[in-house]
Amino acid sequence: MNLLRSGGGGSEGYSGHLTTLARISEDGVWLTGVKIGNAGKTVSLAGRSLRHESVLRYAQRLNEQFSAYGVQFTAVELTPDVAIEGAAGTAGPALSPVAFKLF
After folding, report:
1. CA-closest candidate to residue 59, choices 73, 69, 70, 39
2. Domain residues for 46?
3. Distance (Å, rounded) from C-alpha 56 to C-alpha 5?
């Protein structure tokens, strides 16, 4: 809060980051956590996806849009998400549900 009060997060805080994040979507991908640090120069995201390929497309879009803030997502962690896998069933194309972190 002190950083925002002193203007360290810019005059609008992180609203630009959050607005940009809200405008980027990818089918089958949802976020479960967002961390913004280093006066807006670092962003870490956590989420889940029905397909690991969707996470990679989402990361590419994030890098395109967040470059205006000097933010680049250079690492990704993908782990199998058995909770989704059990609920997904077998209908439709093969799913490879994952939990992910982008930072």
Report:
1. 73
2. 2-102
3. 36
Q: How many domains does the chain have?
A: 1
Cα angle for residues 49, 33, 69 (degrees, 5° grid): 100
What is the tens place of the pLDDT at every residue in 1-56? 565 555 555 557 899 999 999 999 999 999 999 999 999 999 999 999 999 999 99
Q: Which long-range contacts (CB under 8 A, 24 or more apart) does 11-19 make?
A: 14/40, 16/69, 17/43, 17/66, 17/69, 17/71
Answer for the pair 22, 70: CB distance below 8 angstroms, yes or no: no
CA–CA gap between residue 27 and residue 2 (Å, rounded)? 37
pTM for this prediction: 0.81
CATH of the domain at 61: 3.30.1360
